[in-house]
Amino acid sequence: EAAKAALDRSEALESIVHGFVTLDGEGAIRSAQRIQKLIDEGTLTGPLAGVPMAVKDNICTKGLLTTCSSKILYNFVPPYSAQAVLNMEKAGAVIIGKTNMDEFAMGSTTETSAYGVTRNPWNMDHVPGGSSGGSCAVVASEEVSYSLGSDTGGSIRQPSSFCGVTGIKPTYGTVSRYGLIAYGSSLDQIGPVAKNVSDCTAILEAVASFDKKDSTSVLRENYDFSSALVDDVKGMKIGIPRDYFGQGLDEDVKAAVMAAASILEQKGAIVEEFDLSLTEYAIPAYYVIASAEASSNLARFDGVKYGYRAPEFEGLHEMYKKSRSQGFGAEVKRRIMLGSFVLSSGYYDAYYLKALRTKALIKEAFDKAFAKYDIILGPVAPSTAPRLGESLTDPIKMYLGDIYTIAVNLAGLPAISLPCGRDKKGLPIGLQLIGDCFKENNIIRAAYSFE
Ligand code: GLN
C-alpha cells in the first residue's frame, strides 16, 4: 500500500516537479510484495522495512536504467547494484525510481541534466539546487519519504538546503562507492536525504558499511548513529568561522543561521567565533581536483562498451570523437577540458599539485579547529534557491556558490544540512553543521536539538 501510494503521488506530481528520470512502478510493487512477505513472516523488521524511497541516477541499480542524467548513458541498465543500494534493500527499502541530477553530478541546480529541469517544490520558478536536486525535490514534495544522493562538493547539502529537507554527507569512506558512477573519486560520498535528522540517521545506519570492493572504504569502530539522537548539547563546543560570514552572504541566510546558533547557545552549548582561514582557496583547489579526476573517470565513456554511440562515423577515432561530442553536455565537456589541462605535462605542477597541497593545508586548518571545537556551524550556501535559468549563463558565479560546502569534501569530513528558516520569498534556508572525521554523532546530536 505504501509503495502504491508513493507511485500514485509521484505520477500525479511528476508533471510539475519532474524529480525522477525513471519511475519503476512494476519493480517497486514486486519488491514491496516480497518485503511484505518477509515482514509478515517476522524475518524483516526495522524502521525502513517496506518504506518507499528514491535513488539518485548515478547510483547503479541492477536491471534499472541508470543514466547519470546524461545522453551518453541513455540506455545503460547496470548488471549489478551499488553496495549502498544492496544495503538499503537488505533493510527492506522499496525503490520506486531514479532521480534527476546535474549531468554526472556536475552542477548546482540540476539544470545540466539531459532530461529536463527539476522544479523546487516550494516555488516552481526556482531550481531545487544540485546536483542531487531530484533526490531532494521528491522528498520535499513528499513523493517519497527519503532518498539517496551523492556529495562531491555539496551535492547533498546544498539541494537539501534549497528544498527545506535534511541531508547528510558522511565521513569519506563510510558509505561504499562501489556502484556509484565516479565523478571525483577522492571526494564522492553517498548519503541520505529525508524530512528530518532522525530519519537521516536511520538511513545512514542502514547504508553505511565496510566494503572491500571499494579501496577507500574504512572499517569504522561502530556504525551506531542513533544513540546520538538525544536532546542535549550542554557543554558542546561550537565554532563559527568568521570567514563564512563575509561578503556574498545573503542577509536573510545570515540572520537565520545566527538565530540557529543562539538556540544552541540557549540550550547550553558554548558558541564562539574563530578564523578558519584558507576559505578563499577551497573553490579553486576543488575545481582543479574534481575536474582532474572527472577527466580521468569519464574517459571510459567512449561509445565502445556501453551507452551512446554516434550513428555515423568513419574509423575508430571519429567514433570516439563523435560519440563523446554528441553524448556529453556543455558543463561536462568544460570539466573534462579543464581536468585534462591541469593534468597535462608542464601544467601539472602549477595546478594539480598545487591544488593537492592546498587540500592538505585545508585539512590542517580543520584539524586545528577540531582540536578546539566539537562542531563547526555555518550556512550551507550564500543564498537561497536561484530562479530557473539564472545560473546557466555564468558558471563562475555558480562555482562560487559552493564556498561553504566544498572544503568539507576536500577534508573528508561529515556534515549535515538542515532547515533553519525562510527568506522573504518563503524559500528554505539551510544550516550546516560540520564534524571531525568519524564524528557524525556530534553533528547528529546538535541537529537533533532542532527536531
Ligand atoms: N557544485 C559542485 C560541482 O559542480 C558540487 C557537485 C557535487 O557535489 N556533485 O562540482
UniProtKB/TrEMBL annotation:
InterPro entries: Amidase, Amidase_dom, AS_sf, GatA. Pfam families: Amidase (PF01425). GO terms for biological process: translation. One of its GO terms (cellular component) is glutamyl-tRNA(Gln) amidotransferase complex. Coiled coil: none annotated. The active site is at 56 (charge relay system), 131 (charge relay system), 155 (acyl-ester intermediate). Belongs to the amidase family. GatA subfamily. This is Glutamyl-tRNA(Gln) amidotransferase subunit A. It comes from Parasporobacterium paucivorans DSM 15970. The gene is gatA.
